Amino acid sequence: MITVIFYSLQLSANGQVEQLSAFALTGENFSAVIKTTIRATQSPNLKVIPPEIFDVIAEDLTAAITRFLQWTRMVHSMRTRGNQEMNNILLTAHGGACGDHVYLIRAMLACGIEPPHFRLADSVALHNRFSKQECLERLAAEHTSRLTYLPYSACSTARILRAITISQFPKTTEACYTFSVSYIEFANRTGLGMYGIRELPFFLSDFLENALN
After folding, report:
1. What are the residue boundaries of the structural domains of the chain, listed by start?
2. Bridge partners of 17?
3. Of 37 and 61, the one with more pLDDT
4. Distance in angstroms between the alpha carbons of the first and the last residue of the chain
5. N vs C: which end of the chain shows fewer Cβ within 10 Å?
6. Which CATH superfamily is domain 3-212 in?
7. Confidence (pTM)
């Protein structure tokens, strides 16, 4: 059984991951505000938070990603009665192929976290194929008038993406799966696979061991 999770990342003005939010197809949600080396938020909501409060609610990138992965496993396990196979979890992001998926995987690798072998889908391809519209703000206006799109808000983006996709595609899981690839395939296509955490080939291990002794 596939578990679909819609998620979004938002970057600070200096290109660091600052927000990570997600909504499962079944409604569960996750949200994290992440500390950056320099506070350069583009979010109107975060800008108004005093520094002393922001320091309390913001968390380390490694902690946020670890918590996100634990949450995805928990959601999947609960709806499948204990299944722990990460390749049955489908992460869907709008523009993920050249945006969110890349930033998420790079963030994991930077934190020393081996990316799980989940599936990855890009909702731009899905919506553009069937509605000829890929702008999330316009899609929100057309299909989810009860929800307001907030720019630079990962929570708003993930929530609206879920609502739009459910509205347009009653068989949401099947639709997202059709436009998804495995983590391995995505990593190979984008070149991210070369940065993975892996053991050295035996001949290089022997060479290094002899060189150091």
Report:
1. 3-212
2. 11
3. 61
4. 51
5. C
6. Ribonuclease H-like superfamily/Ribonuclease H (3.30.420.10)
7. 0.85
